[in-house]
Amino acid sequence: MSNYSFGVVGAGIIGAAVARELMHVHPGAQITIIEKSNEVAAHQTGHNSGVVHAGLYYQPGSLKARLCRRGVDLLRDYAISRDVPYEECGKLVVALTEEEENRVRDIYKRAKANGVPDVALIGPDEMREIEPNAVGRLALHSPHTAIIDYAAVTRALIEEVTAGGANLLLNTEVKGISNFEDRCTVTVDRDGQSATHQFDYLIVCAGLQSDRMAQLAGGSPYPKIVPFFGQYSKLAPEHRNILNGLVYPVPDPDYPFLGVHLTKRVDGEMLVGPNAFLSFGRENYNGWRISIKDTLDVAFSRAFWKFASGNIKAAIHEVGAVISRKKFLAGAAAYAPDLDGAVSTPITRGIRAQAMDENGHLVDDFVIEHLDRVTVLRNAPSPGATSSLAIAEHLVENLGQNLKEVNKHAPGSDNRR
Q1: Is the overall model pTM greater than 0.70, yes or no?
Q2: CA distances from 75 to 86, 148, 304, 344 (A)
Q3: How many CB atoms lie within 10 A of CB 161?
Q4: Alpha carbon of 248 to those of 132, 197, 265, 337: distances in Å?
Q5: Could you give the CA distance from residue 201 to residue 161 in angstroms, rounded to a whole number?
Q6: Which residues contact 383 (CB under 8 A, 6 or more apart)?
Q7: Which pLDDT tens digit goes with each residue over 59-101?
């Protein structure tokens, strides 16, 4: 049995998965999860489309590619074990032009290199067999791409770890992190009251606040989080069965995000989106909760302006989709013509915690920073939720190596296992 104490900052799906992994690897350890909101899965986890990504796009050998493939298997098995809805509805990545055909072939090569099972390149006739209402010249078919409710998974994870003895602190905001040779301390504000918690080790999975948490622990200002909102719309009931699964565009290498796509949800609703534009607030989910602090943070960021200057064309395109829902839907209708004239209703925005380096480049891979007794997950964009259980394995495994090194030199270490 372990007598270590661990703190986990963030009760999204990754933080919850880390707490569960700690419980399994270090049975008997004291585990405390610190979450500033009044419920779990309140941020990125509870504001996404629910897609379980198969690993089509990611650079072979990257942390993203490896943890995504491992994460799919772990997530599917966990969902089944906990009776969380999980549906392998499949996905088409559709090329509309000759240029896109070449790019979709490249995606196919990456998918094969990443070990994505049963992917295939198919023509228009096979496309219609899978998605009768979809059109295109060539498509990559990923039959095992799935959909899930990530908030439900998170609640299941939290129920499991709290039943196992973990302590969950909601409405608790981290204000300070201190690293010492033999411990770390976390100063929090809970319901207006200040308190300090002491841990042997701390793992920070704070999503939109990850860069700020890292700096509290003595980490670098970069990569810096720049929030981009993604607005999905829910199609009217007469269009909710227009597709059997998911239909995506071929990513444009000159555009920093994936583009508008059609996404089935586990509750049967059909979503179209998202657009992507700078959010004036890291938690501005309704579009009106503008944060002066967050906005000024971006405005005074030299890295952001470097990024913006290189993406003017994309920004102009996105402004049109943000202002006009008709234009927004027209992008989707190019792949499913029956959507022409469709009616949709915007749903709550998601905010993408996109890390940016000091040169204004979006950081593509997962990023982990080790700061003595504090480990910070600094970048976990899509497929972060898909990879959550695998990210937890990776973080806790690396922490275990650190524990071994510390124990070699710690007095009385024979008593700590």
Answers
A1: yes
A2: 9, 9, 34, 31
A3: 24
A4: 15, 46, 14, 14
A5: 18
A6: 53, 55, 58, 64, 68, 71
A7: 999 999 999 999 999 999 999 999 999 999 999 999 999 999 9
